[in-house]
Amino acid sequence: MGTRITPYTAPDEESKKEQVARMFDNIAHSYDFLNHLFSFGIDVLWRKKSIRILKRHLSAHKPNGNAKIMDMATGTADLAIEAVRMGLTNVHITGVDISPGMLDVGRQKIRKRGWTEKIELMEGDSANLPFQTDTFDAYTVAFGVRNFEHLAKGLTEMHRTLKPGGLGIVLEFSKPRHFPMKQLFAFYFRFIMPTIGKLVSKDAAAYSYLPESVQAFPEGSEFLKIMESCGYRDCKCIALTGGIASIYTGVK
Fold it and tell me: Which one of 52, 112, 210, 244 is separated from 172 by 20 to 30 angstroms, measured CA to CA?
């Protein structure tokens, strides 16, 4: 899958998963603020588009509601909360993440809104999910798959938990290919983001890792091929905001 990109320079015995969990624990207190700041709030629009895709799928395949959704790499539960806010009320969302610190922030946000019966958060690893086969009607994962230690294994495991006909939705950063967005994006990710991230989060490595992980991520048609090799069908890619991000979908 290419070069192994990790947040920290660490001994070989510390896995990428362990480093990613430590990184997100370190930046959990400032993650939401920096996320919206760095994307100029556009990440909210990307999440809304992902949820609209989810709603269309559920209205066609689960019109009576009572759907079960998994939000993998849920972080502080932004996508899960957005789903309920946008009208997915007759569903149960299980958010899964490897960072206890991020989950703590997410639980506070959910309790504040009174949505603890709609959204449940739990610690878990994409490569070894504690769910039975054919559990979920759909899953979402926003800006998380590039942090998987084993990308194909994570995609295969999420595919396993989907019901037949279930939809996987992956929102992830990608690299613009055309002038001037390509040049602006590269400069911003390489110089501006790490500097601000270090000042606010006090973790310089975290916001140097982000552009490196985006650069190494197999995007576009390459990622669709990986999804297909993991058993997904009808795989599609939607480019967002000049190619800064993409939404990938696949059906079990």
Answer: 112
